[in-house]
Design brief:
By secondary structure, the protein is α/β, with parallel strands linked by helices. The chain has helices at 20-28, 48-57, 77-88, 112-120, 157-160, 175-187, 195-205, 234-245, 248-262, 269-283, 286-295, 303-314; strands spanning 7-13, 35-41, 62-66, 98-102, 107-108, 129-133, 136-138, 144-147, 172-173, 209-213, 218-221. The radius of gyration is 19 Å and the shape is globular. 41% of the residues are buried.
Length: 318
């Protein structure tokens, strides 16, 4: 086993006072203790900033930054905040640091970073690799209820084109993958569907090793601001169907295609070709679209989810 790496934890925060202290405590209790927390605050009006400063005063390595306030320009604030952290990463990270992502309202299990480090250290030096895992779905009090869905078909670019299975709060990148993400973020469009979906597309498309851990590594807290986040209740599924019918899924795909075209030179030739075929299918007339979709090797993880993909294709909402 190689020496335990420094892991730079990127956290986008905004008015996190209700849950942030418990999340910070869970980070402090990590069995892998070589970490550096970098928090970017998107104009909080509560005590978020002082909570972070108090955490640093206890001797923890913490860097607090202001976020670029781009919400007025039509950007998703949380997504743009995370992307800004990726773009600024060399300013506060060592050259061989790894990169992890944290939400302000979760609770990490003590071995979260350690599991990721041990898995990623099996990858040869210089090979980009991304780790992600399942989560425990928890209530507002951080009481675990159920694990998130399994990923029975595994990760790949074929899956990433039509579904994101990499929860951002579980993602850890080794040094080579962190450098890849930083370089690609400089050229990425400012409007992307989500930073974690973008990372899954980029890493799988560029031929990085993707490690999907079936063991949950954190409590994914569900509360008033993110009750649809787990996407495994009847309400959440119905809401996702509604958003698909309204065209959101198609808009996300269009944003993903633009983002991957911006990093086209980083994709493998096979994945460049697959991206082109998927993009062409979306614009084709009805019968041709169905035929091209049938020939594409893209997939979602379950039969029900894949059926939704076909419904979106039929209705031209893909």
């Amino acid at each position: 086993m190689r020496q335990a790496p420094e892991i730079c934890i990127l956290m986008a925060v905004w008015n996190g006072q209700p849950f942030l202290p418990q999340q910070l405590q869970s980070i402090a209790l990590q069995s892998h203790d070589n970490w550096h927390l970098v928090a970017s605050d998107d104009g909080s009006t509560d005590n978020t900033w002082s909570i972070l400063q108090d955490f640093a005063a206890f001797g923890h390595r913490v860097t607090c930054l202001p976020a670029p306030h781009n919400s007025a320009a039509g950007y998703d604030s949380a997504t743009e905040n995370f992307m800004s952290l990726i773009r600024r990463w060399p300013c506060f990270a060592q050259p061989e640091s790894w990169m992890a992502f944290a939400d302000q309202d979760d609770v990490w299990l003590p071995d979260k970073l350690d599991r990721a480090a041990k898995a990623l250290q099996q990858v040869p030096n210089g090979q980009p690799a991304m780790y992600c895992s399942r989560t425990w779905i928890a209530d507002a009090l951080a009481i675990a209820d159920r694990p998130s869905h399994l990923r029975p078909r595994g990760p790949s670019f074929n899956n990433a084109l039509v579904q994101n299975i990499a929860h951002g709060n579980t993602i850890v990148l080794n040094a080579a993958a962190a450098r890849l993400a930083h370089a690609a973020a400089q050229e990425a469009p400012r409007q992307i569907s989500a930073h974690d979906w973008w990372l899954y597309l980029l890493m799988s498309g560029a031929g990085a090793t993707i490690i999907s851990d079936d063991a949950p590594t954190l409590l994914y807290r569900q509360h008033g601001a993110n009750l649809v986040g787990a996407n495994d209740t009847l309400f959440a599924k119905a809401y996702r169907v509604l958003r698909m019918l309204q065209g959101d899924f198609g808009q996300w795909n269009a944003q993903n295609i633009r983002a991957m075209n911006a990093s086209r030179h980083r994709l493998t030739p096979a994945n460049q070709h697959l991206l082109d075929r998927f993009s062409k299918m979306r614009k084709s007339p009805f019968l041709k679209r169905l035929r091209q979709m049938q020939q594409l090797p893209v997939y979602r993880q379950t039969t029900g989810n894949h059926a939704m993909l076909w419904l979106a294709t039929l209705l031209r909402r893909v």
